[in-house]
């Protein structure tokens, strides 16, 4: 594979056949295949056999992003608006004073009691089923630990398509298989989830709100339909990613509690700052116990100083969630409306991003770059979904929307209107 003799997509011989050719024990070949799967070099699809992956799982999708030239407006990055993030000076100073009074030493609990209480109260208010609280170094860290707690190499995970590149990278990096699930403005389509579950998906990852890249949000009716479907598959692991908490004005419609094992993950990144590296999780007791047990053998815990700083942010009212959601919503809604008025299909129900289906991503991205706008190619976010581009509105002003909409319409003029993203 490294030499290119087995190019990406090549079907590998059955293990017993290869063992016979090499004159070795079949268990030796099985161990080699398992190691290759765990390292993300090959992927196995049941009876259809094993193939060389299209690219190493250690190569992040972010590597597909372009270098933005000086003077070009950058709408490709998914960062929040820095002007809407709170200052960390006061919260970190308060956390340091609290630490000085009672330093955290080995043997302390992994979650600060006040953080757990505040997080649980917030979850209760949103109708999330009861469960213990854990803290991880961001949403992706939590999702990885949950998947590792229940799945084995070769298991299949249903993932939104188009969806978050981090999740699409993480699943194969763990030696797991991605089963793409089509989405619409209300989140994962029920028929697509049903097909993935019928195909043997052991886990399902759902973005509750502010889905990246489409802006989808799971509505009340879709949540009822998904819960009814999941109730028929109680052994499926459900992971809900609510990273949009704090920056959206749409209500949460949680899915957890209908399967034996479930978690809901909430990151502080978008509302309070990516460098905090903190997410809170709740879920069933078995999953949370496994997660915390494995965490003890690695990092041990997320810094109590960071946890105390988040407590200060939550209790001080440093972020006006309503105002933040309104600010993002005004820019996003203005762009979606302007694009639709120009005959361009656009999707952005919540969050920081707008998704525009196009015929040819490369052409559209290149044309927009020449016009002074850098956008993210859809290849970063999709498996089987139709091409598209993602525009992040956090760096955009409402005054810039008409010019951007005209540029997108001109760049995507070749048959873009009416293209579906599912």
Provide a descriptive summary of the structure in words:
The protein has 422 residues and is of the alpha/beta class. It folds into 3 domains: 56 residues, Arc Repressor Mutant, subunit A (Orthogonal Bundle); 112 residues, Aspartate Aminotransferase, domain 1 (Alpha-Beta Complex), CATH 3.90.1150; 198 residues, Type I PLP-dependent aspartate aminotransferase-like (Major domain) (Aspartate Aminotransferase, domain 2), CATH 3.40.640. Helix content is 38%, strand content 15%. The strands form 4 sheets. It has an 8-stranded mixed β-sheet with strand order 4-11-10-9-8-5-6-7, with helices on both faces. Helix 1 crosses helix 2, helix 5 runs parallel beside helix 6 and helix 5 crosses helix 10. The radius of gyration is 22 Å and the shape is globular. The C terminus is likely disordered. InterPro entries: Aminotransferase_I/II_large, HTH_trans_reg/aminotransferase, PyrdxlP-dep_Trfase, PyrdxlP-dep_Trfase_major, Tscrpt_reg_HTH_GntR, WH-like_DNA-bd_sf, WH_DNA-bd_sf. Keywords: DNA-binding, Pyridoxal phosphate, Transcription, Transcription regulation.
Secondary-structure map with pairings?
Layout: H1 15-22, H2 26-38, E1 42-44, E2 50-52, E3 73-74, H3 89-101, H4 113-125, E4 133-136, H5 139-150, E5 156-161, H6 165-173, E6 177-184, E7 187-188, H7 190-198, E8 201-207, H8 220-231, E9 237-241, E10 262-267, H9 269-272, E11 279-283, H10 285-296, H11 304-316, H12 321-341, E12 353-357, H13 361-370, E13 373-374, E14 376-377, E15 388-392, H14 401-411
Parallel strand pairs: 3-13, 5-6, 5-8, 8-9, 9-10
Antiparallel strand pairs: 1-2, 4-11, 6-7, 10-11, 12-15, 14-15
